Task: inverse folding
């Protein structure tokens, strides 16, 4: 038996007895970043495949979501910084070893691109709004700008695919790069968060789509992604099982610990298995209100980020 | 040059003088500390072993905090000392998450703060505050690259350990056991 205590009375705010450095804004951002990455990936992909007309939601209509999600996510990120006035220091350097530096730079490119993508469909998707606001009549340069963007849409789409993938993977690698937090420190977290992000993106498209063919296609895509995600979660747990003592202890938070109900109940069962079954039933022809599986996937994805961020900070090296 | 600290756990009595000296010297905000004392009791009565340790930033060779810092505020200076430049730090907390020793904290002013091996005192040729006040003289500080230095000699002749070497950080605070 070993017992260790601080005899000098250490009780530092947010550090002792366990870390509380990253709060809900980080979890929220990881979710929004993944969601935006998923949506942008599908939008760019189906645009490149010339399926703009067949799948209008994925390419055009939903394009309003990523700029909002990324803006909110960025606000959340900055809100959780402690030395906010120095945020600009992120953009004075690029540090190849720091996932956060990668993320900061990718966001700096992806966020404006997502706005540009939305803007390029603005007159097409919201003719009513434009006839009220008359932006294009008031500001003549918008016409030239729109023309330029529409001409270069394909280039933007080609840029968005790798950028969306980096953004999606980075939300996971941000956590997995810390070997001091055994729960996070596994190589599967990057692909897992990317898959989850793509899956929530597909779910958001299903939610907004009014076109049955499109809903079915994204139902299938989402189903495949959920299966991959379940497999990756199984791999992650297997990795902990086969890991060192600190990883075994970390895993106990998820399996038979404080986060078991949240993780298995809300993330795995309600967030993945139930929507997968519902989507399968819908594809087989049963009438399933489309909002149910899509919302379950989205909420499951959000809870997953919260569980990982909160639980990870409880885990540490013991010495 | 490679600075290192050697702490004799057999001589430490856990008086916390090093903690107070650090807080005073470095103007550490109340409620915070850059070093701390742990008391580890191993075994079951009557077969127990007690170990007292003064712990702090390990000024690792392979410092995860420096690796994950997005702005380069966390950096390593000559002698292997890990420092934080306050006005480059954005307070993101990545380095705190990355430290296996939980040696960093958020200063109330926003930036991240930690042990500096009293870099400002070293420049004046003085020892770190904690080392200079230790009443049992259980703490030693010096250059590991110099084979004749006190720390090199102690590590050569005495059994020692580092904290969580399995974290792969190559820490430079050594404990004589």
Result:
């Amino acid at each position: 038996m070993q017992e260790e205590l601080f005899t000098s009375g250490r009780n530092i705010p947010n550090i002792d007895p366990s870390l509380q450095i990253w709060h809900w804004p980080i979890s929220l951002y990881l979710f929004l970043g993944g969601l935006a990455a998923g949506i942008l990936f599908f939008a760019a992909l189906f645009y490149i495949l010339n399926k703009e007309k067949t799948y209008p939601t994925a390419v055009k209509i939903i394009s309003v979501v990523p700029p909002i999600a990324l803006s909110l996510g960025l606000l959340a990120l900055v809100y959780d910084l402690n030395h906010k006035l120095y945020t600009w220091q992120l953009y004075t350097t690029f540090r190849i070893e720091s996932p956060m530096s990668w993320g900061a730079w990718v966001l700096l490119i992806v966020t404006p691109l997502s706005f540009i993508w939305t803007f390029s469909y603005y007159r097409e998707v919201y003719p009513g709004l434009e006839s009220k606001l008359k932006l294009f009549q008031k500001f003549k340069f918008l016409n030239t700008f729109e023309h330029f963007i529409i001409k270069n849409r394909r280039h933007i789409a080609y840029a968005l695919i790798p950028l969306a993938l980096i953004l999606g993977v980075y939300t996971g690698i941000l956590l997995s790069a810390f070997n001091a937090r055994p729960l996070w420190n596994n190589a599967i977290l990057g692909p897992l968060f990317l898959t989850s992000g793509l899956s929530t993106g597909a779910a958001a498209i299903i939610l907004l789509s009014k076109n049955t063919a499109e809903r079915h296609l994204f139902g299938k895509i989402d189903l495949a992604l959920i299966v991959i995600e379940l497999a990756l979660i199984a791999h992650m747990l297997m990795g902990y099982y086969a890991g060192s003592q600190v990883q075994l202890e970390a895993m106990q938070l998820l399996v038979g610990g404080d986060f078991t109900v949240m993780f298995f109940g809300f993330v795995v069962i309600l967030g993945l298995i139930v929507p997968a079954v519902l989507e399968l039933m819908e594809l087989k022809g049963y009438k399933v209100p489309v909002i149910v599986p899509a919302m379950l996937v989205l909420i499951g994805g959000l809870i997953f980020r919260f569980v990982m961020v909160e639980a990870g900070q409880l885990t540490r090296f013991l010495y | 040059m490679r600075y290192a600290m050697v702490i004799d756990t057999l001589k430490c009595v856990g008086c916390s003088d090093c903690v107070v000296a650090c807080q005073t010297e470095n103007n550490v905000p109340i409620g915070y500390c850059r070093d701390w004392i742990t008391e580890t009791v191993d075994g079951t009565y009557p077969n127990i072993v007690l170990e007292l340790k003064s712990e702090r930033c390990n000024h690792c060779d392979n410092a995860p905090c420096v690796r994950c810092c997005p702005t380069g505020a966390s950096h390593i200076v000559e002698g292997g000392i890990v420092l934080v430049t306050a006005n480059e730090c954005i307070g993101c907390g990545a380095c705190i998450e990355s430290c296996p020793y939980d040696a960093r904290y958020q200063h109330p002013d926003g930036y991240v703060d930690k042990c500096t091996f009293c870099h400002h005192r070293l420049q004046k040729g003085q020892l770190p505050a904690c080392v200079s006040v230790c009443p049992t003289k259980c703490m030693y500080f010096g250059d590991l690259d110099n084979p004749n230095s006190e720390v090199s000699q102690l590590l050569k002749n005495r059994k020692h350990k580092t904290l969580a070497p399995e974290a792969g950080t190559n820490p430079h605070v050594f404990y004589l056991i």
